[in-house]
Structure formats: structure tokens, C-alpha cells
Known about the structure:
single chain, alpha/beta, 7-stranded parallel beta sheet, 13 strands, 15% strand, binds adenosine-5'-diphosphate, binds magnesium ion
Amino acid sequence: PGPALAEARGKLREVFGFDDFRGVQPQVIERVLDGRSTLAVMPTGAGKSLTYQLPATMLKGTCVVVSPLIALMHDQLRAARANGIAAATLTSADADWRETMDAFRAGQLDLLYVAPERASQPAFRDLLSSAPIALFAIDEAHCVSEWGHDFRPDYRQLRPLMDAFAGVPRLALTATADAHTRADILTQLDIPESGLIVAGFDRSNIRYAIRHRDNPVRQIADLMRTEPGPGIVYAPTRAKVEQLADKLAAATGRPVRPYHAGLDPAVRAGNQAAFVESEDMVIVATIAFGMGIDKPDVRFVAHAGLPKSIEAYYQETGRAGRDGDAAQAVMLWGADDFARARQRIGEVPEDRRTSERTRLDALAGLVETAGCRRAVLLRHFGEDPPERCGNCDNCLEAPGVLDVTELAQKLLSA
Ligand code: ADP
Ligand code: MG
């Protein structure tokens, strides 16, 4: 490792208080410090933010961070400032634009967070011309691709903006991009193929199970009885969230709270805060829940209905077991979920239908496979996994596979 990386390690301790890099962080950071554009594909929780925040504290000039959600930006801002990093946001929710712009022009900011819709504004381009820029970091970079699961047209304005600052390296970050989407991100953002860094996607401590939904309350209550720790249950609608929360609380006697966009903001924030603090709470939520929540000890994630895509499934189940301890992901699905998804595809603009259908087919492949779930997931993300993982329903229930627990019991009692 070069001297830059050694210095980065020092900053890791001093500024962030971490002992060591994780996974591909050092590879990404080394490239960034070297001024080379990079696309880093790293799972949720892998620590993507650090790969631009740390260089931002070392490089001359400001790192401009593009991030799609204002709420997440403000979380990041708080965390960065708590570490003593000079950071600011320019969003509709900020009243201190003047001060931020002055500090930026004076070269006093390490990080400037902006939403993608700023990118197309001439005034923003002018602002960038008036200050030294060290790096463009593009978070949730899959939003630039129509192949991604969350295309946002504003992301297409980033390219012309960044092209106006040709010498500034780009760091694109995403958790969820299949091979097709990755290639598209590289093209769209003009990052060389050699700049692609992919972290391992396997979450070996998560046990995956995908079951037919016959009685979701009973099925999830059973799961709650085997997993006394904190859990997240995803439900498709606000009404189902409320219903399930009530019924699961009644069936299990455990603390259960709802979370969805229709709740009073104070109640919603209170439920989230209580969940983050709790060691046994279950939160029943729409998919609005979880982004930016950093709770390492979630013991299970249950889906009461089909998720939107394999990417969404991976991201949502990935909120379980971030501490590395055993965790479960259980999805319940019904034929009506697929019928509804197909109907929805019929209603989207024609040019999006093919990619939506491809996405649904991939999900159907995961649901219907008699083989290893993990292998299907990892192959989807371009990895070449072993045929069987031994830690999903299909591997554990496959005929002829020894039940290790039973075997151990027999040996012990022999
Ligand atoms: P991502 O954006 O990839 O989902 P984050 O950047 O939000 O992940 O980081 C997830 C968590 O991991 C944060 O709490 C962060 O502080 C922590 N983290 C990041 N890098 C390290 C590290 N090298 N050592 C310990 N914790 C880390
Ligand atoms: Mg992130």
C-alpha cells in the first residue's frame, strides 16, 4: 500500500474512530486519492459513505456528494459533523444557503451534499466554478440507469455537469446493480471499465427462506417465537401494516409498532427511535422504512408480500444481521402478488416494460427455484457461488441433506 493509504489509515482512526477498513474500502479509497474515477458496488451497510468522506478530509477542495433523499442527506450531515468534518447541504430544507455558499467558495468545506435536481441548474454550475472541487461522489448511482430499479431522470443531468469539470474524478456508489446496470452506469457516467470495484455480496449469516403465504399472521408469529430479537416485517400497503401490527402483537404478546408514510410524523419518528433502541421490538412497515437506519442487531426481516425486485429483496433482507450474528430472512408470497405485478407492468410506459418484465422474471426465478436461494441471488449480482450454501430453506430441506442439529443430538446422546 502506498503512502496515501497509510495516511488514510491514520485518518480512519483519528477522524472516524475505526480500527480497520472493511472489505473493499481501501481499494476504493486508494483509487479516489489517486484521482481515478471509480464505480464501487458494495452491499448495504458495507460502508460506502466512508469511501468519499475519508478522501474528502485529505484532498484539497470540496467533495460534492449527490444523494437523492434529503432526509438521508441530513443524517449523513449530522454524522459527518459529529466526526468534525466540515460538511453542508444545499437543499430546499436549508435556510443557510448564503453561509454554505460562502464557506464553499472559501474552500472551507470538505463535503457538500446536493440533490440531483440541482445538477441541471445553471446557477449551480456557476457556483461549482467558483470553488475548488476535489471529487464528485454519486450515491445511489443505479438511479442513472433505466436498467436499474429506481431510474431518476435528474441523474442524467449529472454527466453534462461533471463533464464541465473534466479533471475532477468521479466516484459512483451503489448497493444494487446487476451486471447490465453496472455496465450502463459506467457508460452513463463515463467511468472506465477498469474502475469497477465489486464487493462480495454474500451475507452468509442470513438464512433465506421463501414460502407460500397461507396464513401470514400465523407464519410470521411463528417466526417471532423462534427469533426473540428485533425484527422488521415489510407489508405492501399502509392498511396491511396496521392490520398486521395489531394481529402480531395480539398473537405473540411482543412489542410491535407500525411504520408508514401515513402516520403522524412525530409518531413515525417515535416508533423508529424506539425500534433502534429496542432489543425485542418488531416493526411492521412499508418499504419506506429502513433507508439510512443503522441497527446492527436486527434478527429477522420478513416480507408479507413479494418485494419489487431481487435488488429490493437483497437490500431489504440485508438489514438483518449486520452485526454478523445469525439472522433470518423469510419471504411469504402468493400467486396474486405476481398477478398484481404483471398488471402494474401493463400500466407503465411501453419503453420501460421490457426491463420491468426482466426484473419480475428474475424475482420469479428466485421464488420458484428448487435449488439454493443464495446461489440464485449471488449469480444475479454476477458472482459465481457454490451450488449449495447450506443456509437457506431449499438447502436445509432438500431430501438427502443431513440435519446437522439432529445428527449432533444423536451423537451426543449415543
Ligand atoms: P452503506 O452506505 O454502504 O450502506 P454506510 O456508509 O451507511 O453504509 O455505513 C454503514 C455503517 O458502517 C455506518 O455505521 C458506518 O459508520 C460503519 N462503518 C463504515 N466503515 C467502517 C469501518 N471501516 N469500520 C467500522 N465501521 C464502519
Ligand atoms: Mg449509503
